[in-house]
């Protein structure tokens, strides 16, 4: 097969890809993969700036407007995993009660500062959630709002007491402690899919998409707080 190929990928699946999937794929196929990791919104900005890719992993719904612009082959869109949103604190901090919606809201209000992203799928959802809960003004007065990256770093360096992000992304900061997922009443799952760029796809790119839905990848997703797509 030809190669190397370029993969644009959301951060949510990065740990599974870095720890297991891409090295195993290259070992089995001999195909080298060049990676660009960013939130889906940032990946779209890269595309708008003229950057190109062979395979892209992003929020499933993000591909429809890209297909309308002739950038991706929507027929190749393949769901690979989904992630819920969770909450993290420093390793030595007491764990707040987030078992119920009311307890979760109180934990947010009690925090000195809550950190979340303005471009990641989790942060976009969280910003709307606190609006719907009627606590956005109070939280945002002292929130630590980050454009992109691993949000739990903000609790480790003292900027915030609580970090909000996809459960799979919170794993990237081992010095932080994951308290758990949002309670069911306010939980939100984001589905991620892989797709080929528009135009003739190389065998190598097609092979990667297939591998991302295979057993090795599925096991890696499960080990990094991702869930299979029903």
Automatic annotation (TrEMBL):
One of the Pfam families matching this protein, by short name: SBP_bac_11
Superkingdom field: Bacteria
One GO molecular-function entry: molybdate ion binding
InterPro entries: ModA/WtpA (IPR050682)
GO biological process: molybdate ion transport
Protein name per its UniProtKB record: Molybdate transport system substrate-binding protein
Origin species: Glycomyces sambucus
């Amino acid at each position: 097969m030809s190669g190397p190929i370029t993969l644009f990928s959301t951060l949510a699946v990065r740990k599974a890809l870095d720890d297991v999937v891409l090295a195993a794929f290259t070992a089995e196929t001999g195909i080298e993969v060049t990676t660009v990791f960013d939130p889906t919104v940032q990946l779209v900005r890269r595309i708008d700036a003229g950057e190109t890719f062979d395979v892209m992993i992003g929020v499933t719904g993000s591909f429809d407007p890209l297909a309308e612009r002739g950038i991706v082959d929507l027929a190749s869109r393949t769901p690979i995993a989904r992630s819920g949103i969770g909450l993290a604190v420093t390793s030595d901090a007491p764990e707040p009660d987030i078992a119920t919606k009311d307890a979760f809201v109180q934990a947010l209000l009690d925090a000195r500062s809550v950190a979340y992203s303005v471009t990641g799928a989790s942060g976009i959802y969280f910003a709307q959630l606190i609006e719907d809960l009627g606590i956005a003004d109070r939280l945002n007065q002292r929130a630590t709002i980050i454009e992109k990256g691993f949000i739990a770093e903000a609790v480790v360096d003292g900027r915030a007491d609580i970090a909000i992000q996809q459960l799979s992304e919170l794993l990237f900061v081992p010095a932080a402690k994951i308290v758990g997922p949002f309670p069911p009443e306010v939980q939100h799952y984001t589905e991620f899919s892989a797709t080929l760029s528009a135009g003739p796809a190389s065998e190598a790119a097609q092979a990667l998409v297939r591998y991302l839905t295979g057993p090795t990848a599925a096991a890696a997703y499960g080990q990094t707080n991702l869930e299979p797509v029903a």
